[in-house]
Amino acid sequence: MGMSRDKERYRRQLLIDGWGDEAQGKVAQSSVTVVGAGGLGSAALLYLAAAGVGRIRIIDSDELALSNLNRQVLYGDRYIDGKKAEHAAARLSELNPDIEVEALPTRLTAENIEQHLPAEGLLVDCLDNFETRFLLNRHAVKHGLPLVHAGVEGMYGQLTCVFPGETPCLECLFSSSKGSLHAALPREIPVLGAAVGTMGCLQALEALKIITGLGTTLRNRLLVFDGLHARFDEVEIKRDSRCAVCAP
């Protein structure tokens, strides 16, 4: 990949104050694993690839269904019944052929997570269930990896960044179903594509800030999005000294 090609592809973000060649170099050398290639993953993956993240791993075991297409904008009708991870990887490689993209069409379990998840880089939680989300969280804490979390229901969303040893982990926040998204919801979660896309884009933004060191991340803060009334609110969050996963 020639420098002139880099300069042209990323020209507009290189103009951002504080970005430049140094930040772009960090992005090119970075490794991000996105777990979940649905609505959140569609948006997050597109913008991570577009920004030039050097290595992207996509983990998702599901096949695409027609009902996914109101929010999973990586795909189209012709991909129905195909593996999301594989089609997502092909789409990202088409968008940016200068990056490495790996598809892993499998479901993470306690038995295989060490095999399939790296012990380095950055993790992005684009999941829709807390069982796998908590597995991902435990892996992040065990290996000291930053984790960008988002969740969506209807036109509402939430977002935070986990820095193991410094911030609450996801089990600090959601080990009890009280107050968490998807608590006591039916198996099929109501959701609007534009709301999911908003949160997925914000996940990509937080991930890029972590990689480059620019700006202020959602450290010890939970961002709450009310799409119905066009409002963002912020909640200060603290570690649970009794957390079974991250308590010192």
Structure description:
This protein is an alpha/beta fold and 248 residues long. The chain has one domain (3-236): NAD(P)-binding Rossmann-like Domain (Rossmann fold). Helices cover 35% and strands 18% of the residues. The protein has helices at residues 3-9, 11-14, 20-28, 39-51, 84-95, 113-116, 130-143, 170-174, 193-212; strands at 31-35, 55-59, 100-104, 122-125, 147-153, 156-162, 221-226, 231-236. It has an eight-stranded mixed beta sheet with strand order 3-2-1-4-5-6-7-8, sandwiched between helices. Helix 7 links the parallel strand 4 and strand 5 (147-153). Helix 4 (39-51) runs parallel beside helix 5 and helix 4 packs parallel to helix 9 (193-212). The protein is globular. Residues 177-186 have low confidence and may be disordered.
Question: Which features does this protein show?
Answer:
248 residues; alpha/beta; 9 helices
Report a brief summary of the structure.
The chain is of the alpha/beta class. It has helices spanning 3-9, 11-14, 20-28, 39-51, 84-95, 113-116, 130-143, 170-174, 193-212, and strands spanning 31-35, 55-59, 100-104, 122-125, 147-153, 156-162, 221-226, 231-236. The protein has one domain (3-236): NAD(P)-binding Rossmann-like Domain (Rossmann fold), CATH 3.40.50.
